[in-house]
TrEMBL record:
<protein>
    <recommendedName>
        <fullName>diguanylate cyclase</fullName>
        <ecNumber>2.7.7.65</ecNumber>
    </recommendedName>
</protein>
<dbReference type="InterPro" id="IPR050469">
    <property type="entry name" value="Diguanylate_Cyclase"/>
</dbReference>
<dbReference type="Pfam" id="PF08448">
    <property type="entry name" value="PAS_4"/>
</dbReference>
<dbReference type="InterPro" id="IPR000014">
    <property type="entry name" value="PAS"/>
</dbReference>
<dbReference type="InterPro" id="IPR000700">
    <property type="entry name" value="PAS-assoc_C"/>
</dbReference>
<feature type="domain" description="PAC">
    <location>
        <begin position="92"/>
        <end position="144"/>
    </location>
</feature>
<dbReference type="InterPro" id="IPR013656">
    <property type="entry name" value="PAS_4"/>
</dbReference>
<feature type="domain" description="GGDEF">
    <location>
        <begin position="176"/>
        <end position="306"/>
    </location>
</feature>
<dbReference type="InterPro" id="IPR043128">
    <property type="entry name" value="Rev_trsase/Diguanyl_cyclase"/>
</dbReference>
<dbReference type="InterPro" id="IPR035965">
    <property type="entry name" value="PAS-like_dom_sf"/>
</dbReference>
<feature type="domain" description="PAS">
    <location>
        <begin position="19"/>
        <end position="97"/>
    </location>
</feature>
<keyword id="KW-0808">Transferase</keyword>
<dbReference type="InterPro" id="IPR000160">
    <property type="entry name" value="GGDEF_dom"/>
</dbReference>
<dbReference type="InterPro" id="IPR029787">
    <property type="entry name" value="Nucleotide_cyclase"/>
</dbReference>
<dbReference type="Pfam" id="PF00990">
    <property type="entry name" value="GGDEF"/>
</dbReference>
<dbReference type="GO" id="GO:0052621">
    <property type="term" value="F:diguanylate cyclase activity"/>
</dbReference>
<keyword id="KW-0548">Nucleotidyltransferase</keyword>
Length: 306
């Protein structure tokens, strides 16, 4: 641009508009949205990609400020960012979730630069917008996959153990009680063998949903393995943990899941319980596991305390 970053505001408007069709063609050719504003924050112009992006023709844009175009919350963010750039001229880059004028949500990355007039005073800003909605969607998908189990939507083992470890360290510092349950669905192989793997999957979702409904919001429920779940009960001593474990076991045993039109199947849980008594985390998990093994040996469908 021959603007030399140093034009008077009025010169700039003239330069960009009819006297400079080539410049307009140039910016219109750019596939990313570009806009420019004066020092008061009024739009001086934009390219075609920006018109499409905000879904507004440039005639309706020029001369207006953000408060006349967007909701106040978004306008406040834009105005504050513009003000900061005018006060500290140079470059500015930030990401923001926005709503278009037609109400679509987009994630965007702004690259803004200030420009000065012939007296070297800041005369306005030029902004370029990169639509990073797809990139954000993929990022969120990756985080979701890395955090949750695809089938049940519960925390997966890796992320679950991270959170259990964090809570363990916190409980150690604050001396709050906490208890750990290992829960395993009884004879689950039979479900697969008798009804097929898809029904088995549906059953795991059903069981996870049911457990989610029994536990409290602050508890951490993890799909630990195939048909095995870990539950960390926060601020819960052994007596209360036993009650909660019995509730999980009882609620699951009394419910049935529909299979096909006429059949209903039910499930039971074996549960091992261990409570924090200053043992290290791996030891606590091992104890709950040992108690689960004991519950399986005692004919299943029961809770054993280590
Ligand atoms: N459908 C389905 N089945 C799974 C999944 N993960 C594990 N399983 C099945 O769970 C069954 C576990 O079997 P076992 O370890 O023998 O235990 P069990 O039959 O539950 O018997 P007990 O634990 O001793 O009561 C196996 O048949 C696995 O294939 C899954 O994601 N979907």
């Amino acid at each position: 641009m021959n603007m030399d970053n140093s034009l008077l505001n009025s010169e700039l408007i003239t330069f960009i508009s009819s006297n400079s069709p080539l410049l307009q063609v140039l910016v219109d050719t750019m596939p990313v949205p570009i806009f420019y504003k004066d020092r008061k924050g009024c739009y001086l112009g934009c390219n075609r990609a920006f018109e499409e992006f905000i879904e507004l023709p440039r005639d309706e844009l020029i001369g207006r400020n953000v408060y006349q175009l967007y909701d106040k919350e978004l306008a406040d963010v834009y105005a504050a960012a513009d003000r900061e750039l005018m006060e500290k001229p140079g470059k500015q880059v930030y990401e923001k979730q926005i709503r278009t004028l037609k109400g679509l949500t987009r994630f965007v990355k702004f690259h803004k630069t200030s420009f000065v007039d012939s007296q070297q005073n800041v005369a306005g800003i030029i902004g370029i917008i990169f639509d990073i909605t797809e990139q954000k969607r993929l990022e969120m998908q990756l985080v979701r996959h890395a955090t949750y189990d695809d089938l049940t939507g519960l925390l997966n083992r890796r992320e679950g153990l991270n959170r259990v470890s964090e809570r363990y360290e916190l409980a150690k510092r604050t001396a709050e009680p906490f208890s750990l349950l290992m829960m395993d669905v009884d004879h689950f192989k039979r479900v697969n063998d008798q009804h097929g793997h898809l029904v088995g999957d549906k059953a795991l979702k059903f069981i996870a949903e049911l457990l989610r409904g029994v536990i409290r919001q602050e508890d951490i429920l993890i799909r630990y393995g195939g048909e095995e779940f870990m539950l960390l009960l926060i601020n819960v001593d052994e007596a209360l943990a036993l009650e909660l474990a019995e509730s999980c076991r009882f609620e699951l045993a009394r419910r049935t899941m529909k299979v096909g039109k006429h059949q209903e199947i039910s499930f039971t849980l074996s549960i091992g319980l261990s409570s924090y008594r200053e043992q290290v985390l791996t030891e606590l998990i091992h104890e709950a596991d040992t108690a689960l093994y004991e519950a399986k040996n005692r004919n299943r469908n029961n809770v054993c305390i280590y």
